[in-house]
């Protein structure tokens, strides 16, 4: 079961934005997220807003979905123009899910064409799709590259079959080197996503997964601790005592092992859970995710997708909104010419500052010391003494977490927010 949408104030039926979102917009990057809510099966740990094909029909079906998403893209362009936002080409596009590559490559290309037609793509735009290793072929990846995609992020999760079985992942881990090679042959950059802390996963299992990912030669790896969300099948298994979750010490040991192996292989951390190689003087970080963490503008297309517009600078305001969750209702509202937005939240100066700290502290570039309150700046000294914050970086005016600090990022953030 995917999580409930947050509470919020109503959104006008035409999706109108507050006039003040235009302040400083010309200096902010603009990205687009496209949500594809389909999966072959629903994994027991997952609480994303996803559905199997048999659950949906009408304008929410896989066959009709690209056309439905294009309707929201057209609406988004109108809403932004009415708000007086300046013309901006799209700097990043991220297609997530679900499993976007369950759609034909031609449908993903049509959706990207819709973005291109609405706003244009920057010459160096990063265009990513997520994919399961068993949902692509050399031909489909070549078609995506020809359509303008530049990057693919494969959900590898583990190289150990029994760990994948616990996660209810369907792919054969032996396929990973093949799909990476196919993507690279097509001219795509490649990222591999890993999960650590699966019940029953040993430290050696985790080492095998990280080393297997590195053996493919990819330039980007994400490693996320498994979080068992309420309402999922795995949460019920834990509650019934069918499986046991690992300890915090186990999770920390696996994080440190990943950081050691990835760093030794030439991939440096740039966000708590993400590592990338520097190629030709540029780090192969996911620019779309960096835009989220830096508070840039983005429009989220699809059921349950979130969007954000506005400045997070002191004295400014931003607005976040989210679409109705169920694909059938999403398609119905667009079919009636209405915004699919379910609610929104106005971020005042205090809320924006809180988010700036929460997100910025997770980045290797760190957080500007100047955005912190006087009380929070005093707390930084204590975290330097306890080894959670890099003292040399603070002398340069930045709050940067040490590796121990990355393990305790939530604790540090709590102390830096009022």
Automatic annotation (TrEMBL):
PROSITE patterns: RADICAL_SAM
Matches recorded under NCBIfam families: hemN_rel (TIGR00539)
Keyword field: 4Fe-4S, Chaperone, Cytoplasm, Heme, Iron, Iron-sulfur, Metal-binding, S-adenosyl-L-methionine
GO cellular component: cytoplasm
Keyword 4Fe-4S set for record: yes
Keyword 4Fe-4S found: yes
InterPro entries xref list: Aldolase_TIM, Coproporphyrinogen-III_oxidase, Elp3/MiaA/NifB-like_rSAM, HemW-like, rSAM, rSAM_sf
SMART domains according to UniProt: Elp3
Entries under CDD domains matching the protein: Radical_SAM
Job of this protein: Probably acts as a heme chaperone, transferring heme to an unknown acceptor. Binds one molecule of heme per monomer, possibly covalently. Binds 1 [4Fe-4S] cluster. The cluster is coordinated with 3 cysteines and an exchangeable S-adenosyl-L-methionine.
Domain Radical SAM core, first and last residues per copy: 24-268
Family classification: Belongs to the anaerobic coproporphyrinogen-III oxidase family. HemW subfamily.
Highest taxon in the source lineage: Bacteria
Entry GO MF terms: 4 iron, 4 sulfur cluster binding; coproporphyrinogen oxidase activity; metal ion binding
Protein name: Heme chaperone HemW
Biological process (GO), any one: porphyrin-containing compound biosynthetic process
Entry-linked Pfam families: Radical_SAM
